[in-house]
Amino acid sequence: MRRLTRSPGFAIISAHTQVSRPAIAKGSGEPRRVPLEFKIGDKVIYPNHGLGIIEQIETRPTGEREEEFLRLRIVANDSTVMVPRSNTTSVGLRRVISKKEIEEVYDALKDTKVRVFDDWKGRFQENSDKMRTGSITEVALVFKSLSHLALQKNLSYRERRMLDKAKYLLVSEIAEVERLPADQVEAKLDRAVARGIKQIKDR
Known about the structure:
This protein is α+β, with helices and mostly antiparallel strands and 203 residues long. It contains 5 helices and 7 strands, in the order E-E-E-E-E-E-E-H-H-H-H-H. Helix content is 41%, strand content 22%. The protein has a 7-stranded mixed β-sheet with strand order 1-2-6-5-4-3-7. Helix 4 packs across helix 5. The longest helix has 22 residues. The N and C termini lie far apart (52 Å).
């Protein structure tokens, strides 16, 4: 039985399905705004949820008209999300990244730039906004900044969960694209972020 995970921006339409409402991503690094064409079988990334597979495209009544929906199966928890085709851009649905973009992620982790707010609320809000963009580079920056912060102090429960989620989203997408075991990708990410943090400390 598929599980249902409640998240902001969703409305439940059955015991096992969610339908997205329009939600414009905030912050920098937003996904491209040119509408993408999707088809059954496409592997896509749904912001803050990760890898999904389009299993069906169907038409449903919405008020006085009918609308086409993409039925996604979220790989992480085997839940189902219904996304109106007209909302794919506004909710940040995108295709998985290219191998070139993967190298850009590693480069971002290894460089000496890191942004950390002293104010917990400001830091959490900025990182939450980055996670919602759907941009893997923004997710990598969250992973980097919280990894750096974790070496200086104990993270709060919410920030620890965010760090774990950012790492999962990176590992799952990169492993899918490169066809590598998750633990191998995780080790490579850990080495990259450790290198970046070391350079920051050595400056």
